[in-house]
UniProtKB/TrEMBL annotation, chain A:
Family matches, as Pfam families: BPD_transp_1 (PF00528)
TM annotation in the entry: 21-40, 80-104, 116-140, 152-171, 192-214, 249-269
Alphabetized UniProt keyword annotations: Cell membrane, Membrane, Transmembrane, Transmembrane helix, Transport
InterPro entries linked to this entry: MetI-like (IPR000515), MetI-like_sf (IPR035906)
Residue ranges constituting the ABC transmembrane type-1 domain according to the UniProt record: 81-271
Source domain of life: Bacteria
PROSITE patterns registered for this protein in UniProt: ABC_TM1
Places the protein is found: Cell membrane
Membrane topology qualifier: Multi-pass membrane protein
Primary location recorded for the protein, binned into one broad class: membrane
Family as reported in the entry's similarity comment: Belongs to the binding-protein-dependent transport system permease family.
The protein's name: ABC transporter permease
TrEMBL record, chain B:
Membrane topology: Multi-pass membrane protein
Keyword list, A-Z: Cell membrane, Membrane, Sugar transport, Transmembrane, Transmembrane helix, Transport
Name used for this protein in its record: Sugar transport system (Permease)
Subcellular location: Cell membrane
The family this protein is said to belong to: Belongs to the binding-protein-dependent transport system permease family.
Naturally occurring in which organism (per UniProt): Paenibacillus aceti
Residue ranges of domain ABC transmembrane type-1 in the record: 82-296
Classification lineage: Bacteria, Bacillati, Bacillota, Bacilli, Bacillales
PROSITE patterns: ABC_TM1
Superkingdom to which the source organism belongs: Bacteria
Transmembrane spans: 25-51, 86-108, 120-141, 216-240, 278-300
Keyword Glycosyltransferase: no
Length: 286, 306
């Protein structure tokens, strides 16, 4: 950390410098989390229509009426949370399994066409999702005819190229000698994977799981396209519909937003280490 | 990292035999990934090319050659959406990068625990769903005098603004929202890269009597060039695909002032069901993104070793 002067012996100077830095960072931090703070405290207000509403920056009272109002909006509102959980859970499980397998194969197993196939996958990451959205919609709705099902919500996300890339990056740092040793001991590739690779890759598997779950929980676009009844919608789509149907109900809208975001906040604060690590894993080494 | 893998541990013949034995395992391990990729990425891309030359009809599409492309290029709204996208990108990406860089530099001298706390706070908006954030920001931008942002203006003696409702401020409102909610990832990546710079460089600079700014200019900035390039390219790619905020906050309005390419394509596809036109426009977008990325690598990628 020698970018900064050490100020040995001059405690007061160092103290002033660090305090200034912290004040600057705090100001920016307040601006960053203000919307989230505003969302949570406003959700405790009464579910009245916002006429000449006076927003308060401090909670005047704690009432859960707005939450009740949000859940009462549709008989399926609890189902939205369940749907999100089912979809995000399945997508996460399948990504962890299949991305880890593929990531291991691409980094450590030598098979014909490995480099070519991996380059194709990497190139595909550059393609904007707008290109695939129309054909994907036609495929799911017109060809497979599985609109408004869990399959439609889950299948396109079963394993993403990004996750394969992430695990491959991580696994190339596992020494090949370990695998060679296991092979000499008579293990086949599947046994090596289960007994050697998986125990060594717990971190990257956790990172994959968390980032995938968050992505899937927060995704709006695809569920919005392929669901058309309230009982199949996810919480994000439900929240959007609630917003458009109750444009003047301020506090219930905030309650809905809090409900959709809270599970991820809880997950984030309990597994912070993996979240923050996950951000860098894919980026280091460009 | 990869050095270990390169050490030949067996003779050529033996290795060749092992290759053959592992072929099957390799394919088995990637099988599911490949099927998913082929069905939900490769096939749609090929299909998009075909659709872009057709007028889509549920019962048998009609081949119409380049008409979708020709119509797109003569469509004023398409050019407006391109301009909007460029304005949005230019206003958000460089500023976010600069802000993240500055914050990462400021966080650096703090204690490990304080660093983590700040990282967590800055990353928090990235954890909340885009729909939830759009709901909140919609109220922050409340055009009434009682709206949060308007109250803030009053403190500075400025008058009311119709943030999302006026074509002069709608784009800026979306940009402001991006400034305050999309820097978490880049701050963390910058900080990781900063921590990766070897101490000895600073020590050498200290011996030469270099001050803070000199060290920043001659050591930090060159060392972080690959990181900056990575964040710049991914930032621009992401920004060109922006759809959700425009769709949820303004719907592209007022008077198409915030219609970005992503939203235009969505509207053509799922509002007007002109799949052919949407496919053609999405391929044009892909070409634009690919060329911009290429230019960025050419222009800024010099002297970078990977």
């Amino acid at each position: 950390m020698a970018l900064y002067k050490k100020y040995t012996g001059k405690k007061a100077v160092k103290y002033t410098r660090n305090t200034t830095i912290i004040i600057l960072l705090l100001l920016f931090a307040i601006a960053t989390i203000f919307p989230i703070y505003f969302m949570i405290i406003s959700s405790f207000g009464d579910p009245v229509e916002a006429g000449a509403l006076d927003y308060s920056l401090w909670p005047k009272k704690i009432s859960f009426e707005s939450y009740k109002f949000f859940f009462d909006y549709s008989e399926h509102s609890y189902r939205w949370l369940l749907n999100s959980l089912i979809v995000a859970g399945s997508v996460t499980a399948s990504n962890v399994i299949f991305a880890t397998l593929a990531g291991y194969a691409f980094s450590k197993i030598r098979f014909k066409g490995r480099t070519v196939l991996f380059s194709v996958l990497l190139c595909a990451m550059m393609i904007p999702y707008q290109v695939t959205q129309v054909p994907l919609y036609i495929l799911i709705v017109n060809i497979f005819q599985i609109e408004n099902t869990y399959r439609a919500l889950i299948m396109p996300g079963l394993v993403t190229v990004y996750n394969i890339f992430l695990t491959k990056q991580f696994m190339s740092s596992i020494p090949t000698e370990i695998i060679e040793c296991a092979k000499v001991e008579g293990c086949n590739q599947f046994q090596i994977f289960i007994k050697v690779i998986v125990p060594l890759s717990k971190t990257v598997m956790a990172v994959t799981a968390i980032l995938t779950f968050m992505d899937s929980w927060n995704t709006f676009f695809w569920p919005f396209l392929v669901t058309n009844t309230m009982d199949m919608q996810t919480i994000q789509v439900g929240l959007k519909n609630f917003r458009f149907a109750n444009t003047t109900y301020f506090a219930p809208m905030m309650a809905g937003a809090t409900i959709s975001a809270l599970p991820m906040f809880i997950l984030f604060f309990s597994l912070q280490k993996y979240f923050l690590e996950g951000v860098t894993v894919g980026a280091v080494k460009g | 990292m990869s050095q270990l893998a390169k050490v030949p541990s067996t003779t050529k013949v033996a290795r060749k035999r092992k290759w053959r034995g592992d072929n099957g395992w390799g394919y088995a391990f990637i099988a599911v990934a490949l099927v998913v990729f082929a069905m939900f990425t490769a096939y749609p891309v090929v299909s998009a090319f075909i659709i872009s030359f057709q007028e889509y009809r549920p019962l048998g599409s009609v081949f119409i050659g380049f008409e979708n492309y020709v119509n797109t290029f003569s469509d004023a709204l398409f050019w407006k959406s391109i301009r909007n996208t460029i304005v949005y990108t230019v206003l958000t990406v460089p500023f976010t990068l600069f802000l993240s860089f500055a914050v990462a530099i400021l966080i650096l001298p703090l204690k490990k625990r304080t660093q983590t706390a700040f990282k967590a706070i800055y990353y928090l908006p990235a954890v909340a769903s885009g729909v939830a954030l759009s709901v909140v920001w919609l109220w922050i931008f409340d055009p009434m005098p009682s709206g949060i942002l308007n109250k803030l203006l009053h403190v500075f003696g400025l008058s009311n603004m119709n943030w999302l409702g006026a074509s002069s401020t709608a784009m800026f409102s979306l940009v402001l929202m991006a400034w305050l909610s999309s820097h978490g990832t880049s701050i963390i990546i910058y900080l990781a890269a900063l921590l990766g710079i070897d101490e000895s460089y600073y020590e050498a600079a200290d011996l030469d009597g270099a001050n803070f700014l000199k060290k920043l200019w001659y050591i930090v900035i060159p060392f972080l060039k690959p990181t900056t390039l990575f964040l710049l390219v991914t930032g621009v790619i992401g920004s060109f695909q922006v759809f959700q905020n425009a769709y949820l906050m303004t719907g592209g309005g007022p008077d198409n002032a915030t219609t970005m390419v992503g939203l235009l394509i969505f509207n053509n596809a799922f509002k007007y069901f002109e799949f052919g036109k949407a496919a053609a426009q999405s391929l044009i977008l892909a070409a634009i993104i690919a060329s911009i990325s290429f230019i960025q690598f050419k222009f800024f990628g010099k002297n970078i070793e990977y």
